[in-house]
Amino acid sequence: MPTIILTLIPSEVFFTEKYFLGIDVGSVSTDLVVSNGNGKILSKLYLRTQGRPVKALTDGLKLMRRELGGIDISGVGTTGSGRQLAGIITGADIVKNEITAHAAAAKRLVPGVRTILEIGGQDSKIIFLKDGVVTDFAMNTVCAAGTGSFLDRQAERLGIPIERFGEYALRSKNPTRIAGRCAVFAESDMIHKQQTGHSTEDIVAGLCRALVRNYLNNLAKCKEICEP
């Protein structure tokens, strides 16, 4: 059974006329959100893709329909690595890549944003904006060590829910240095550190730091990261 998180605000259904559905189908999770014409979120859903994007999407749509009833959707937009597939299934009005979607969302939430750091399931991105326009970006699609799936896999190996990974890392007293340039080497190094008695908290913190080093070395090298 996929991990499902559903949040619903049903009272809004009675106060607006137009509703819009946003879908993000990624390698790790599939996310759906329904909002009104003012951008107010009525319902949002997170569930694991688990290598079956079609099933994850159809399950998500069924859950949304069950919770919201027969409301009419005025427009559908899709993004994520599975955006084209999701667009075909839903007959989406717009299909946007993640760069465009991240930029639009960041500008809305953080006016004047200049740098976006994004670590996804199968790739990572750094996006630069000037006056609200994307001027440059870089993606890491080669090495898994700089992506979220790297931490997801190590969490599974350590027997820790990925949702608690940050909690473990923050309890670390002496983060373990773990090789982070390659996912295979990092995993071997982690096993070695386990065998030599390093605590789980220190290993988790070390894995997080290894991912950050990989990200900065591969994507942000020779680039200026400006706030906000």
CATH topology of the largest domain: Nucleotidyltransferase, domain 5
Q: Could you tell me how far the N terminus lies from the C terminus, measured between alpha carbons in angstroms? A: 39 Å
Radius of gyration: 20 Å
Which parts are unreliable, with pLDDT below 50 for 5 consecutive residues or more? 11-16
The number of distinct helices, counting runs of at least 4 residues, comes to 7
What is the CATH architecture term of the largest domain? 2-Layer Sandwich
CATH superfamily of the largest domain: ATPase, nucleotide binding domain
Helix content: 25-40%
CATH class of the largest domain: Alpha Beta
Order the strands across the largest sheet as they lie in space: 1-4-3-2-5-6
Give descriptors for this structure:
3-stranded antiparallel beta sheet; Nucleotidyltransferase, domain 5; 228 residues; 9 strands; alpha+beta
